[in-house]
Predict the 3D structure of the following.
Amino acid sequence: MSDDVIDIAVLGGGCAGLGFAMQYAGTKSQETVTIFENRKNYQGDRHWSFWLHNKDHFIHRDILKSEWSEWSFSKGGTEYLHQSHEYAYCTIDSADYYQKAQSIIESDNRLFLNLGIDVFNVSYDEESKLYNIDTSKGQYQARKIIDCRSHYEAPQKDYAIYQIFYGAVIESKNAFVNHQAGLMTNMTHEDHGFSFLYLLPFSKDKALIEYTVFSKIVFPPEILKPFLSKYLDDYFQNYDILKEEQAILPMNVFIDYNQRLELEISYIRLGKDTGALRAATGYGFVNIYKQINDLILNLNDFSKVNKTPNALLNWMDRVLLKIIHDHPQKMPNIFLALSKNMPTNSFARFMNNNPNYYDIVRLIMAVPPKPFMKAALSRDTQNF
């Protein structure tokens, strides 16, 4: 057992855990923070994307890889373009995020990063008022726990939906319109579900392209590699693959985001499995960032962190998931109608989890009413 008691133990050094450390570095608190991460080293394995208002205070603007004021949707020969003077669609390369975090941690004597350590169990000792953390390198004790590990539990099989993608960063000379992001292009319905291409051009010569599927069954993302390869071969005469990335994102509304181990005042869960990952879209970076902001303001009492989800947005997500589940063949036309009829800034606010009532009304008016009314009135919509 380590002799030193950790003030704040962070279990998991991914997006949320490292994000907390970076924002904690800007505080005057004297508590020590130790992060336990099972990876032995960090690699640029993903990109995180989100919308930012041009007046937003955002501490990671220095590592934005790209930002776009235009984003598009397409199906067949039909394309709709959104243009905004207020919002930009932005992305961060995880390699830059990891590097920034490690640099900040190394320069702050309150922060410690322990790589290559697996956390097996956490228990609370009533006598010492400390948490015991059993790891692959012995036992540690901490006064507070921020648990960023995955605690996802799949819903009943009949209600599960997954967003699965396989992507690549490619280089092809003068192949891209670098000021326009393709959010949902080439939308179609295949045997494996509703599918589309996601295209983020970083320059005229380089872009991230992902083949994405909304599926009722979970399968290895590598299965989608031939579909991505076919698209690349069809649309680009010459290209080089610089790196590849893949993921499986559960799309259901996470119910147990509010669970705690023992004491809410000193133990909290943080990250994508705590309601931060938007169920129907897969966007979560800004929500995690907001969670961290709230936590930083309540370091003395974790129970004061806002744990109340937006009930209306959760219900709307469930309605959409019901339609995706029951009628995936309708999704290309639904998303095309949404992109055609919903104002650009309203769309950005809704996707970023910050809509006003006007935005919600415009969304309801933008989509075909019949499938949404049917799903809204269905008894099993609450199971998604």
The chain has nine helices and 17 strands. Residues 255-262 have pLDDT under 50 and may be disordered. The longest strand covers residues 180-190.
